[in-house]
Design goal:
Length: 450
């Protein structure tokens, strides 16, 4: 028989071997996880550094074939953009084109452009953007370009604007092009559309609050006798207009975001990734939706929610524009101490957000003043139902009723909103209730059989 001492030695050695083997697998597992983590971060970074993509603020924005003019698709938030295709907004369309370094190009209503180039090299931090504005207005918010060969260029049929980090707007209507500078400097050259090149000798530098205007008929003159373009102060009515005001507000939010990230000690590359991560889910969501559309498996409910979001965004944008217009025409008040309207909220009579057809939901519109006081304005509000889920019977009274076009789905999401206009200042406020679901009413028939 084996001695107890020998058995102890064997058991001890076996334990050592087991620990060694276990340790090996733990180390390997850790290495694999780290490797996978590295690969995941690398893949994520590559995904984030993809082509330009669009954020649709209010519909409608479409993509067209630049040669045949054929409408290819209606664009949605998260759609990636191909070079050479025409992007257009309609009379209510607003959109933002995002580039991989964090710079953005905001499209206004009734605008049309072609992205001729929009590449970004992560290693050299070189951004190369060329935009051809065919019609309308765009606003550029360009992150300071680092790469020596970086450029951001927007051209119309009359003028070319080139920058390395600034905020400016450019518009083109009826053969007249104008540039408006809000931050930094913009280099402007007259452009010969037929020869497709800048006109030498017309280079002009614009600084903050400066503008130029170039008409089509002026191009012939400049080709014969090149001179610098005439620089003027931006007119007060343009500075206080909704287009400039809306974009200055957006730029302020953008600058604040960058500042907060810099205060955390993040470097340029880290800041870019943080900015893009905010929108990464939207891009992935659109990829999944487009894949589902190709396979014919897209969920009707998801499609309804997307339309709902677009409807609400459009209403919110219209209200913002009205506020800006009201502020631009409102006269300064002297010795004004009266409380002013601050916000609008909708209070529902029940917490349940799932209704059945024919259910009645009562709502109240409550206005909060700057001094904290509350005021009910249910009767004075304009009530709207977003989605085909019912109708407003009376101010604050919603009746659930699915439209015949979607009743076969069994249920659908929707939202109730109200708009209140201040009779003194004409400023508008939006109140919105939580998203609710309306279900089809199932009739129960009982038969007695004998």
């Amino acid at each position: 028989m084996l001695s107890s001492k020998f058995l102890k030695i064997v058991i001890l050695m076996a334990l050592i071997v087991l620990i060694a083997v276990a340790g090996f697998f733990v180390v390997q597992d850790f290495k694999n996880k780290e490797k996978n983590k590295f690969n995941l971060e690398q893949v994520e970074e590559e995904a984030l550094a993809s082509r330009p993509w669009i954020e649709v603020i209010s519909s409608q924005t479409i993509k067209k074939n630049s040669e045949t003019k054929e409408v290819l698709m209606e664009l949605k938030t998260g759609d990636e953009l191909e070079y050479g295709e025409t992007i257009e907004t309609n009379e209510s369309g607003l959109a933002i084109i995002h580039f991989s370094d964090g710079s953005v190009l905001r499209m206004e209503e009734n605008s049309s452009l072609i992205i001729e180039e929009g590449s970004f090299d992560e290693k050299t931090e070189s951004l190369k953007v060329r935009i051809a504005l065919k019609l309308g207005r765009v606003w550029s918010r360009v992150v300071r370009l680092v790469g020596a060969d970086s450029y951001w260029e927007i051209k119309t049929s009359n003028v070319v604007a080139t920058v390395r980090g600034t905020a400016f707007g450019i518009e083109h209507f009826e053969n007249v092009s104008s540039i408006f500078v809000d931050e930094g400097k913009v280099e402007a050259d007259a452009f010969d559309f037929i020869a497709n090149k800048k006109i030498e000798g017309t280079k002009t530098i614009l600084e903050k609050n400066k503008t130029i205007e170039v008409k089509k008929e002026k191009i012939k003159e400049l080709k014969v006798k090149p001179t610098e373009l005439v620089v003027k102060e931006i007119p007060r009515e343009i500075l206080s207009g909704k287009w400039v005001a809306r974009n200055k507000e957006a730029d302020a939010r953008f600058n604040e975001k960058i500042q907060k990230l810099e205060e955390k000690g993040l470097e340029r590359k880290e800041i870019r990734i943080e900015i893009k991560k905010e929108f990464y889910d939207k891009i992935e969501k659109r990829r999944e939706e487009k894949q589902a559309e190709k396979q014919g498996t897209i969920k009707p409910e998801l499609e309804s929610k997307t339309k709902l979001e677009n409807e609400l965004s459009l209403i919110e944008q219209k209200i913002k524009d009205k506020k800006i217009e009201a502020q631009s025409v409102q006269k300064p008040l002297t010795e004004e101490t009266t409380a002013k309207p601050k916000s609008l909220a909708i209070i529902m009579s029940q917490i349940n957000i799932v209704l059945t057809e024919d259910d009645v939901l009562n709502l109240k519109a409550i206005l909060t003043m700057t001094d904290g006081a509350k005021k009910e304005v249910t009767q004075e509000c304009e009530w709207k139902v977003l989605g085909k889920i019912g109708f407003i019977k009376a101010p604050g009274a919603f009746v659930a009723k699915l439209d015949s076009s979607i009743s076969e789905l069994g249920q659908a999401p929707g939202q109730i909103v109200c708009v209140w206009t201040d009779p003194k200042t004409f400023e508008t406020f939006l109140g919105s209730a939580p998203i609710i679901k309306v279900q089809t009413k199932i009739e129960e028939n009982f038969e007695t059989r004998g």
